[in-house]
Amino acid sequence: MWSTANMRGVPTTPSNSTSAEVCCAAQGVCTYTHIASLGKVILGLDVALLTMNLGEVARFIIKPEYGYGVLGLAPKVEPNETLDYEIELVSFGKPLPKFPSQAELAESRKRQAEEDRKMLEDNPPATAFVHIFYGKDEWEVLVSAEDKIRINNHKVPLYLNRALCKIKLNKWADAEWDCDKAIEINNTLPKAHFRRSLVFLGKLNDELAKEDRKEFWVIDKATKFLVEAETSLQRAVALTEGVDDAQIVKTQIDLKRAKLTLQKYIKNYHEAEKKLYKDNIMDRLVADNKKKQASELQHELEHAFEDMPSLE
C-alpha cells in the first residue's frame, strides 16, 4: 500500500506547503470532494494527509483533540466526538492562493496610486477648458429666477474650492476675487469670509517678509491688509455662532502674531525715522545756528570799537 519512491522523480506525498484534493467517503461511497490547504482544516486531517501517497485510499480514526474538540461542529459533530474518515488522496500541488489582508490591500492600492500618478506626470493628457459666457442682458432676461438660484448654488462651492487652491499657491489676488464672488452670491457663508481672511493674512505676511529681507514695503498697505483680515475673520466667527473651530482658532493666533510683528516693525520704523531726522536735519540745523550765532557775535565785537577815538 505504501509507496516510498517515484520512478519519474515526481513527489508522491504532500508537504506542509501544499494543497491537496481529497475524497472523503463513508461506507465506501465518496460523499464529497474537498480542496484542503494544510493548516486550514482540523489537525487530524493535516497529519493524515502528510502520511498519504498519491492515489492512496486510507481510513483514519481521529480523536477529539485532533478533531473539533470540546466545542464540536454543530449540528453535524457532537462535542468530544471521535471522527471516522475514509480519505482518497486524488491530487496535490502548490498551496492555494493566500487572500491579502486589509493592510496588504491598502499598501497595494497606495503603490498603484503612486504608479498611476507618476505615469500621469510623465505622460500628461491633453486638457481642454470650456468657458460658457452669458451676456449681462441675457442673464437678466433669459435666465429665470429659479435657474439663477440653482446656478449660483453650484457656483459658490466652485469659487470657494478654487479660492482654497489659489491660497495654497499664494496667488492672493485670484483667491480674493473668488472669495468676493462667493460672498456676493451668499453673504452668510462663514467659509467664504474665513478664506478671505486667509487671503489678507497671506498678503500681510508677504509685506512683513519684505522687512526681514530689508526690502521696501508700505506701512499703510500692511495696515490695510491687517484690517481686512480682522474684519473678515470676525465676520466668519459671528456666522459660526460661537462654535469652536480649530482652523479659526489657529488663524486668530496667526493673525494676532502678525499684528504684534507689524506693530513692532512700525515702532522700529518710527524710531529709525526720528533718528534719521535728528542726525540729518536737527543736528545740522543746530550746528548751522551755532555758526551763525558765533559769526554775529564776532561781527558785533568788530564794530563795537569803531566809534572810539584813537589813542595817538
From TrEMBL:
PANTHER family: INACTIVE PEPTIDYL-PROLYL CIS-TRANS ISOMERASE FKBP6. This is peptidylprolyl isomerase. It comes from the Eukaryota. SUPFAM superfamilies: FKBP-like, TPR-like. Residues 39-93 form the PPIase FKBP-type domain. The keyword Repeat applies. GO terms for molecular function: peptidyl-prolyl cis-trans isomerase activity. Keywords: Coiled coil, Isomerase, Repeat, Rotamase, TPR repeat. The keyword Coiled coil applies. Pfam families: FKBP_C. Its EC number is 5.2.1.8. Residues 255-307 form a coiled coil. It is an enzyme of class 5 (isomerase).
